[in-house]
Amino acid sequence: MAEQPDAQQPLTERVVIVTGGAGFVGSHLVDRLVERGDRVVVVDNVVTGTWDNLAHLGDRIERVEADVSQGLALDTLGDRAPDTVYGVCHLASPASPPAYLALPVETLMVGSEGTRHALEVARQRGGRFLLASTSEIYGDPEVHPQPETYLGNVNAIGPRGCYDEAKRFAEAMTMAYARTHGVSVRIARLFNTYGPRLRAEDGRVVSNLLTQAMENRPMSIYGDGTQTRSFGYVDDTVDGLLRLLDSDVQMPVNLGTPTEFSILELVEAVRRVTGTTAEVVHLELPTDDPTQRQPDIGRAKELLGWKPEVTLIDGLHRYADWLSAQTA
Ligand code: NAD
Ligand code: UDP
Question: Cβ(35)–Cβ(57) under 8 Å?
């Protein structure tokens, strides 16, 4: 295994590979890495992302269009392929329920083979590895709020199993590489994140409700709307990812907002931000939809000095501004 570059290495020499970097969270992470002077290679097959998210960076980053379940295809960079890397951040995966329900096999493959390929790059080129895992690890939790020590309550054979089990496998593979090959690993368990570049048609609840409200269309509530989620603004999430990447914390860390909202309360927040008069419509609750979700962020606070800063109302305003600019 090549020597592990550390956080003190001069920035100009640091290469970070971001799989899924053309997606919503990934593109914000790429922005922050470029801002601080890292050389960034993005590997993405744009199945749910778009290179438009990175268009403003021009030739300041390198792009590889590849399905990471087949490999990261770094050889396509020729002489520019990095021999050593500071980090491999593995974010590639469909993440929205409609996207992973439409691509269940691909989702399982990117969580399994894709994760193994990304770990191999970290092993061979000496970098630390960061996995974007998820609160879905906890399934429909029976412990509330959820600390990282909670082992979860996942239905492997239900429709959401393709995503939940892909991420659980990805975490297991990550730990196997740490134990077997000594790869320095980080696991971020992200809770629901929203903000600019979350596509209007992504299908997740914040993008759905906000676009419906802004267009004065009925706001879709699945089930009775009493189920809860914790919504994090993307800048906070990415700040947590960077702190984790640069840290020595080799255990899973929850990154989410410890304030919990029911979907009915989210609708009220969206009404406040948009001033919409749109009605609500209740649609069928999807199978295995978790009833509650709230992170225990004690570990992130203590080990990373991290906590979210952006309130739901502020975040919704910023996201609504971005959505308006897209249609202007
Ligand atoms: P996204 O769909 O916007 O981004 C995912 C990116 O991965 C896209 O650009 C997509 O094209 C790419 N991708 C998917 N499969 C690929 C493959 N086989 N090869 C190469 N690229 C591939 O989703 P997001 O919300 O930005 O999520 C990013 C990561 O964070 C995902 O791993 C997701 O599971 C995780 N996560 C996100 C949230 C959230 O609320 N946004 C919550 C928990 C976990
Ligand atoms: N949801 C909703 N209306 C929508 C989309 C989703 O009420 O238009 C609900 C969904 O059933 C779930 C919650 O909002 O209870 C969060 O859904 P999302 O798809 O954003 O993410 P999840 O946490 O389920 O992965």
Answer: no
